Protein backbone atom coordinates (compact mmCIF):
# COMPACT_ATOMS: atom_id res chain seq x y z
CA UNK A 1 0.00 0.00 0.00
CA UNK A 2 1.12 3.55 -0.60
CA UNK A 3 1.99 5.55 2.44
CA UNK A 4 3.45 8.96 1.61
CA UNK A 5 2.83 12.05 -0.51
CA UNK A 6 6.47 13.01 -0.79
CA UNK A 7 7.65 15.02 -3.80
CA UNK A 8 10.46 13.80 -6.04
CA UNK A 9 12.10 15.84 -8.74
CA UNK A 10 11.16 14.37 -12.01
CA UNK A 11 11.49 17.35 -14.34
CA UNK A 12 10.06 16.97 -17.79
CA UNK A 13 12.97 17.30 -20.21
CA UNK A 14 14.17 15.48 -23.29
CA UNK A 15 17.37 13.44 -23.35
CA UNK A 16 18.83 10.30 -24.97
CA UNK A 17 18.43 6.78 -23.67
CA UNK A 18 21.22 4.51 -22.49
CA UNK A 19 19.34 1.36 -21.43
CA UNK A 20 17.26 -1.11 -23.38
CA UNK A 21 13.54 -0.44 -23.65
CA UNK A 22 11.20 -2.42 -21.44
CA UNK A 23 7.53 -2.91 -22.17
CA UNK A 24 5.37 -2.64 -19.08
CA UNK A 25 1.69 -3.60 -18.95
CA UNK A 26 0.24 -2.23 -15.72
CA UNK A 27 -3.06 -3.28 -14.13
CA UNK A 28 -6.00 -1.78 -15.98
CA UNK A 29 -4.39 -1.98 -19.45
CA UNK A 30 -6.96 -1.71 -22.20
CA UNK A 31 -5.85 -3.27 -25.54
CA UNK A 32 -5.90 -0.72 -28.33
CA UNK A 33 -5.45 2.21 -25.93
CA UNK A 34 -2.94 4.98 -26.59
CA UNK A 35 0.62 4.28 -25.47
CA UNK A 36 3.38 6.63 -24.29
CA UNK A 37 7.12 6.33 -23.65
CA UNK A 38 8.80 7.68 -20.57
CA UNK A 39 12.55 7.92 -20.16
CA UNK A 40 13.77 8.31 -16.58
CA UNK A 41 17.32 9.57 -16.02
CA UNK A 42 18.95 9.38 -12.60
CA UNK A 43 21.24 12.42 -12.31
CA UNK A 44 21.48 12.03 -8.52
CA UNK A 45 24.47 10.58 -6.65
CA UNK A 46 22.34 7.64 -5.47
CA UNK A 47 21.68 4.38 -7.33
CA UNK A 48 17.97 3.59 -7.64
CA UNK A 49 17.22 -0.04 -6.82
CA UNK A 50 13.45 -0.11 -7.28
CA UNK A 51 11.02 1.82 -9.48
CA UNK A 52 7.26 1.44 -9.22
CA UNK A 53 4.70 3.12 -11.47
CA UNK A 54 1.04 2.24 -11.10
CA UNK A 55 -2.20 3.75 -12.22
CA UNK A 56 -3.34 6.30 -9.65
CA UNK A 57 -6.64 4.41 -9.53
CA UNK A 58 -4.85 1.22 -8.38
CA UNK A 59 -4.24 0.98 -4.60
CA UNK A 60 -1.28 -1.43 -5.14
CA UNK A 61 2.19 -0.67 -6.48
CA UNK A 62 2.55 -3.84 -8.52
CA UNK A 63 5.91 -5.00 -9.89
CA UNK A 64 9.28 -3.27 -9.67
CA UNK A 65 9.93 -2.01 -13.21
CA UNK A 66 13.72 -2.34 -12.77
CA UNK A 67 13.55 -6.01 -11.85
CA UNK A 68 17.09 -7.28 -11.19
CA UNK A 69 18.62 -4.08 -12.65
CA UNK A 70 19.48 -0.80 -10.99
CA UNK A 71 19.18 2.74 -12.32
CA UNK A 72 22.77 3.92 -11.81
CA UNK A 73 23.63 7.29 -10.29
CA UNK A 74 25.09 10.11 -12.38
CA UNK A 75 23.22 9.56 -15.62
CA UNK A 76 21.69 6.07 -15.80
CA UNK A 77 18.49 5.89 -17.87
CA UNK A 78 15.59 3.53 -18.38
CA UNK A 79 12.73 3.86 -20.89
CA UNK A 80 9.28 2.38 -20.26
CA UNK A 81 6.34 2.15 -22.65
CA UNK A 82 3.07 2.54 -20.78
CA UNK A 83 -0.63 2.98 -21.56
CA UNK A 84 -1.80 6.59 -21.24
CA UNK A 85 -3.03 7.14 -17.70
CA UNK A 86 -2.35 9.09 -14.50
CA UNK A 87 0.39 7.35 -12.49
CA UNK A 88 1.80 7.29 -8.99
CA UNK A 89 5.57 6.75 -8.94
CA UNK A 90 7.82 5.42 -6.19
CA UNK A 91 11.60 5.04 -6.25
CA UNK A 92 13.77 3.36 -3.62
CA UNK A 93 17.46 4.27 -3.50
CA UNK A 94 20.57 2.35 -2.44
CA UNK A 95 19.96 3.18 1.25
CA UNK A 96 16.35 1.96 1.14
CA UNK A 97 14.96 5.51 1.22
CA UNK A 98 11.63 5.96 -0.59
CA UNK A 99 10.38 8.89 -2.64
CA UNK A 100 6.89 9.04 -4.12
CA UNK A 101 5.17 11.33 -6.59
CA UNK A 102 1.42 11.04 -6.97
CA UNK A 103 -1.05 11.81 -9.77
CA UNK A 104 1.39 12.27 -12.67
CA UNK A 105 -0.30 12.31 -16.11
CA UNK A 106 1.41 10.29 -18.83
CA UNK A 107 0.07 10.36 -22.36
CA UNK A 108 2.87 11.58 -24.58
CA UNK A 109 6.56 10.86 -24.88
CA UNK A 110 8.15 12.21 -21.70
CA UNK A 111 11.47 12.29 -19.92
CA UNK A 112 12.00 12.76 -16.19
CA UNK A 113 15.12 13.55 -14.14
CA UNK A 114 15.71 12.24 -10.62
CA UNK A 115 17.93 14.73 -8.74
CA UNK A 116 19.86 14.81 -5.44
CA UNK A 117 17.80 17.74 -4.19
CA UNK A 118 14.49 15.95 -4.44
CA UNK A 119 15.73 12.60 -3.14
CA UNK A 120 17.12 14.40 -0.09
CA UNK A 121 13.89 16.36 0.36
CA UNK A 122 12.05 13.05 0.67
CA UNK A 123 14.29 12.28 3.64
CA UNK A 124 13.48 15.63 5.29
CA UNK A 125 16.78 17.36 4.52
CA UNK A 126 15.21 20.27 2.73
Structure overview:
- This protein is mainly beta.
- It has a single domain, classed as Immunoglobulin-like.
- It has one helix and eight strands.
- The chain has one helix spanning 116-122; strands at 10-12, 21-23, 35-42, 48-55, 76-83, 85-93, 98-106, 110-114.
- The chain has a five-stranded mixed β-sheet with strand order 1-8-3-5-2. A three-stranded antiparallel β-sheet has the order 4-6-7.
- The longest helix has 7 residues, at 116-122.
- Mean pLDDT is 76; it is low at 1-31.
Entry keywords:
single chain, Immunoglobulin-like, 3-stranded antiparallel β-sheet, 1 helix, globular, disordered N terminus
Draw up the topology in text.
Blueprint: E1 10-12, E2 21-23, E3 35-42, E4 48-55, E5 76-83, E6 85-93, E7 98-106, E8 110-114, H1 116-122
Parallel strand pairs: 2-5, 3-8
Antiparallel strand pairs: 1-8, 3-5, 4-6, 6-7
